[in-house]
Design a protein that fits this description.
Length: 213
């Protein structure tokens, strides 16, 4: 597994505002959208392309187009939905699937409660959207879910990651013969005793959409 922390002043600036407890939900959603587009630029460096012959106003030339099968973007519900528009702005012809996962707050284990994905993902590059790589259980389960269906290249986009989550991901994906990359805006200090990233930005889903129920 490879972890890529995007080192860019605009990424750092937007992340600083996201961390601020005074930032309201509309601003948080807008900045998440912008930040994900910056992360997506880095995350798609290895997207598969094929040659395409075209004609410019001056002469024929050969460019590239996205290869088939198209990439699949998979937000993890619910917080991953807040990252979808920013990703699709950069990769508008990709297809979109959904995985619903919930973390048990006592055991910190993830379970799947819903999915909308192709049954066969053979040969597909998949981009998972999950704002917080905290304990790593949810992302590890999602990656296994996709690779079990044949996905052969996984890139996860996370706003923040914790060292403990990266280490768990490494352990749980050991032996997986599929390249996995995590692209994140920052690798934070640690997890607290409730499994939240420190200094972090709080619960991403709550800050995007408010507290449900």
């Amino acid at each position: 597994m490879r972890t890529h922390v995007v080192d860019h002043p605009l990424v750092a600036h937007k992340l600083t505002v996201l961390r601020d407890v005074q930032t309201d939900s509309p601003t948080f959603r807008h900045l998440t959208d912008e930040l994900v587009t910056l992360l997506a630029y880095e995350a798609t460096r290895d997207v598969r392309v094929e040659d395409l012959d075209i004609r410019t106003p001056v002469a024929p030339t050969t460019g590239v187009t996205l290869a088939s099968p198209k990439p699949l973007v998979v937000p993890i519900l619910r917080a991953g939905l807040g990252m979808l528009d920013g990703m699709m702005r950069l990769l508008p012809t990709a297809e979109v699937g959904f995985v619903g996962m919930v973390r048990n707050e006592d055991t910190l284990e993830a379970s799947t409660y819903a999915e909308r994905l192709p049954a066969d993902l053979s040969g597909r590059q998949c981009y998972i959207l999950d704002p917080m790589l905290a304990t790593g259980g949810t992302l590890a389960a999602a990656i296994r879910f996709l690779t079990d269906r044949g996905a052969d290249h996984i890139t996860a986009l996370c706003l923040l990651a914790a060292p403990e989550g990266c280490e768990r991901l490494e352990r749980e994906l050991e032996g997986l013969d599929v390249p996995v990359t995590v692209v994140t805006a920052a690798l934070d200090e640690r997890l607290n005793d409730k499994g939240y990233i420190v200094p972090g930005l709080g619960d991403a889903g709550d800050r995007l959409y408010g507290v449900a129920g």
